[in-house]
## 1
Amino acid sequence: MTPQQTLAYFRSRESQIVDLIRGIVDIESPSHDAAASTRVVDWVESQFKATGADLSIERTRVEDGEHLIIKAYPGEGLHTLLLGHTDTVHPIGTNRKNPTRIEDDKLYGCGIFDMKSGVILMIETLRYFAATNTQPSTPLTIVLSCDEEVGSFTGRPIIEEHARGAVRCLICEPSSHGCVKTARKGTGMFTLRAHGVPAHAGLEPEKGANAVAELARQVESIHAVARPEIGTTVNVTVFRGGTTLNVIPDLAECEIDVRFSQADEAERVTSELRRLKTTDPRVSLELEGEINRPPMERSDAVAALFEKARAAAASFDYDIGEIAVGGGSDGNFVAALGVPVLDGLGITGDGAHRMDEHILISDIAKRAALVTLLLCQ
Ligand SMILES: [Zn+2]
């Protein structure tokens, strides 16, 4: 098969692929909903089996859903890890307000871009190998986790287990304007709580220690931990405090979003947040949370992998760019193990996590051909 023939194969399947994407999107599967997770995983498992490819499937049940592990074309040598997730951020019932639908070249639906259409890309790639009697250049391990959108607390060890010893990792997460992601920032989530002393705001306010006032002063110090010149951002994104108009508040808390490009920033940011001091000694501070995902840095191996993808795309006159982004994904965990990761290989679209989430139908065959050709290298 020439690259043009591979593209033509996927073009000929375009309407069936659209139907499959509609099928998976219509099975709503928000994170933390175990029954919904099982419904979508049942469907995905049956679709993988129907490809006719040489594969075995394992399901790992956790409290909030099921992780799916698929091994295809087993054999000697290092495997390629294909990573994805079956959960979405949209609560059950959202598809009544935002139905799966086609408008011109756009296919809309809840979680379609992030990343249910990416799951279908993997299924279609395996169907291609079976239909054309060809094989990927390495054994494949596919891990589809069920808690990516909420931090991958149970998915992470499974992803890391299957990432060890992988020659590369490809992720069909959303692209950014069609660009493949070769670097992602690391992420951290913290909560800072101020505990003060309550008092009647009219009778004896001087006996109180105002937790809101103290935490408000801390916001500037928190923001000062950022070092945007090297890619570290620190932002207070949620602020809560107080109970009633006439009471000096004894509790306030804020949530802090941390992003960083350099691995060693994790420790600096955490220790500086821990060292924050109150100006009112009667108020105490309590820090909760941690660095959740290490950064995915653009190593030489990542650059080489991108170059292969660019060349594969160019072989059928398709242009792809690359981009570094602030959002984390499960690719961050894999990159931390030294495995080169190419992320954002999903079908071009826009609106992840929003109601106007969509993919471009005209990009489906191109992305499927790109992922397939990459797996043949
Ligand atoms: Zn995603």
## 2
Amino acid sequence: MNYDAEVITTDVLIIGGGSAGLWAAKRFSEAAPERSALIVDKGPKDWGGLMTMAGGDFDAVLPGEDVDAWVQDLVYYFDGLCNQSDMEEILRRSGDRLRDYQKFGCEFFTKADGTLQSVPQRGLDHVRLYPAKLKGRGGELMVKNLVKQLKDQKVGRLGRIQITELLRHGERIAGAVGFDTLSGKFYVFHAQAVILATGMGGWKTSYGKNTPTGEGVALGYGAGARLMHFEFGRVWNMPRYFGWEGQTTLMPLGGRFINALGESFMDKYSPILGANTDPHYTTIAMAMEIRAGRGPIYFDLSRINPADTVLLRPQNGWQKLNYDKLSALGMDLFRDNTEWVPQMTVSYGGIDADIYGRTGVPGLFAAGTACATEPGVYAGGFALMTTSVTGHLAGEGAAAFLQGADSLPSTGQEAEIARLRTEAFKPLGQQGLKPKEVVTCIQRAMFPYDVSILKTENALLHALREIQRIRTEDVPRMAAADPHYLMKLREADAMAFVSELYLRASLARQETRAGHYREDFPQRKGEPRWLLWSKGAEGKPVATWKTVPLESYKHPVTRYYQDNFRFA
Ligand SMILES: Cc1cc2nc3c(=O)[nH]c(=O)nc-3n(C[C@H](O)[C@H](O)[C@H](O)COP(=O)(O)OP(=O)(O)OC[C@H]3O[C@@H](n4cnc5c(N)ncnc54)[C@H](O)[C@@H]3O)c2cc1C
């Protein structure tokens, strides 16, 4: 092992090279071409984060469409919790990012007249996605094309380095430290500004959700940034025995879930929307059906028009591998009913940053899913849109910040760096719990239905006690055999942090709204409010409620998406 340190100086350090990080780097180097930008990712260099596995479907407001109409859809969909001013800015720029992708060579399905083919989302009037043409490889091609741009713009890119701490110079964030997850080499990055593009927190439910574990969100919190939307988790419906990309395009085209009696049960829970709705509502219904003894749940795609399967059948990539294996076993996803289950995947909790990624901590920016954007309901194609736009804007924000900021020296932090280095490697080569054992304990606490879907106070309190025990007893006892497992250890630590905030926030919100369903408080209560978290004394999270400032927004809240459902 080589535990030597390498010291690197850059103007902006972008932690995370997913959709948000790549766009942030691109925009920063366009806006400040004389300055240097460096992306550091714990995954392989240029792998592109979750986007590399994504279908590539993209939401966008195209020229001639009305941004306000989209915002109104989202005010309704988010049950009033929409940050209307930020959402308007994001949507206003979404068409530009779609056009950028087309310019880079990414293709989307078109109709006979040459215009883009769209798929409406979640029974909303205006929100729609544009499906990528190469089903199964759309996201991968987006990554390749973006990385090509960054090479042309001479953006530095490093892989296999996990960032463990941020550096400070006075009040300002001045870089970060981390280590090579293969060789163990220690890295010091001196930077004038840092963009956290580290993705969400989550619970490692499948290969598509292995990396979003929340270290970046925890780093932001530790540095003094506020967090929000922690009561919302993404509970998705997934096939029980294989991986699939969800049902974003399948539901609007006729896909539906049926129970063991063959009933299309969503018609009962929502006579208006039926099956064509948000997965968070479908999974509530799935849990209720299974609890009532009407499980298992199957996905029935037999009603999809055969002409439309061209939009859905994977032509390449990981989905094609799964599809071919299923075919070899005599199963066809588009012909046979397959068993599906609710799966708690990632947290919607993130950093409360403004539209330029400013976190309130000088020199610290955040972008993409590391920021809180959606309150637990999610339209297909939304993430590639929001992450590209917020990444782009954070790059612009960081460039503007550096124009007016003093230049920081890269000396004066030697003692702190030495301390962080000792701290980072402390668990290496020790005897102790394996990170995987701790991850399994966290998953056991978080996955019961009454913690993740049909939440109740008793179950949440029980899970909170267990997560607090894990944080105080198990996390400090973890050890790592090598740098790879040291990375896993850091991930498990962040997962425990995210889990505690999820539980505290879920307990605090004593109502049902958007993606948060409290079985013991099944109604909405009062004005829409956001729940924010900041670091209090001894690092303890302190909650603050903020009423959504409807008086300064364009659109009153007159309709609620949740009113389409009858669960209670
Ligand atoms: C299978 C699948 C299909 C999808 N399909 C679609 C789709 O068709 N349309 C759509 O809109 N969305 C889709 N999504 C969602 C979308 O791809 C993601 O939400 C989006 O790409 C997230 O981008 P991000 O940059 O915010 O985060 P991420 O992609 O998670 O990137 C964060 C990066 O930060 C790195 N990182 C984290 N912590 C550290 C650390 N401590 N040190 C260094 N690096 C770190 C990670 O390795 C990662 O590369 C899909 C997702 C999956 C998994």
